[in-house]
Design goal:
The protein has about 250 residues and is α/β, with parallel strands linked by helices. It folds into two domains: about 1-80 and about 175-180 and about 210-254, P-loop containing nucleotide triphosphate hydrolases (Rossmann fold, 3-Layer(aba) Sandwich); about 80-170, 3-Layer(aba) Sandwich (Rossmann fold). The protein is built from ten helices and ten strands. A hairpin with a 2-residue loop joins strand 4 (about 60-65) and strand 5 (about 65). The relative contact order is 0.18. The structure holds adenosine-5'-triphosphate and magnesium ion. Magnesium ion binds near residues 43, 44 and 86.
Amino acid sequence: MAALLEVDALSIQFGGVKAVQDVSFSVPAGAIYAVIGPNGAGKTTLFNLITGLYTPTSGEIRLEGQAIQGKPPHELARLGMARTFQNLQICLNMTALENVMVGAHLRLDRNLIKAALRWPALSRRERELRQEAAECMAYAGLEDFLEARADAMPYGALKRLEIARALAAKPRLLFLDEPAAGLNPKETQEVAELVRKIATHGVTVVLIEHDMKMVMSLADRILVLDYGKKLAEGSAAEVRANPDVIAAYLGAHA
Ligand SMILES: Nc1ncnc2c1ncn2[C@@H]1O[C@H](COP(=O)(O)OP(=O)(O)OP(=O)(O)O)[C@@H](O)[C@H]1O
Ligand SMILES: [Mg+2]
C-alpha cells in the first residue's frame, strides 16, 4: 500500500517541553493506524500538528507526497482531512443534526451554511445538506437522534455524533482522538464497529486510543509514543512483543 500520510522528523517544543520529538512514521492508504502511549506522551499534540492546529518547530508532514505542515485546518479539511477531539467539541444547545450540518461547512461555502442554518427550509441546497447530515448520522447508528438536542443525548451517542460530523466533511483521512474514552464495553464495541466500517469504505483512519483490546483488534499498524518520542512502530503482534513497549507501557496496563 502506498503511503497516504508521511510524517518526517516532526518536533514541537512548548517552552522547555519537547512534546513531540523527531517523530517519523507513515500511514498506508486504507489502513487503520493506531497511536498509543501513556498520558502526556504527545499523542494529541501529534494530531494537532498534523491537522494544522499547531505549527511544528521542525520536520515535515506530507499528504500524498505534498508538504502540508503549516497549512491552516480549513485548507487541510479541503484536502480531505477531518478529526474528532479528545474532549467532545459538540454544540450542546443545537440539535444533533445541526451539529453534523456544521461538519459539512468545511467543504462548502460558509455563507451558504450560515443562511441554511438561519432560515430553515430556505433552499434546495439546505434540504440536501440536511439529507447528507441525516445520512451521516444513520451511518453512525444515530438515526433515532436526528432532532434530539445534543445536551439530551447519552455520552456514547455524542462520541459517535462527533464522528458523524467529521464524516460529513467527506474525508479520506480521519483522525479520531480517543473515540472510546469514557464508554462502557457495549458502546466501545459500537465505536469499534463504526471505525471498521469507515475503513472498509476506503477512509484511512488514524486512531488514538487507550483501550488496548480495541487497538489490538482494529489496528493494521501501531505507533507507540513515550515522552514525545517514537518508542516503537509495527503490527499489533510486533508492538505487543516489543520489550521497550512492555516496559514503558503495556506492562503497566496488563
Ligand atoms: N499548547 C500547549 N502548550 C504547552 N504544553 C503543551 C501544549 N499542548 C500539549 N502540551 C504538553 O505536551 C505534552 C503532551 O501532551 P498531549 O496532550 O499531546 O499528550 P497525550 O499523549 O495526548 O496524553 P493523554 O493520553 O493524557 O491525552 C504534555 O506535557 C502537555 O502538557
Ligand atoms: Mg491526548
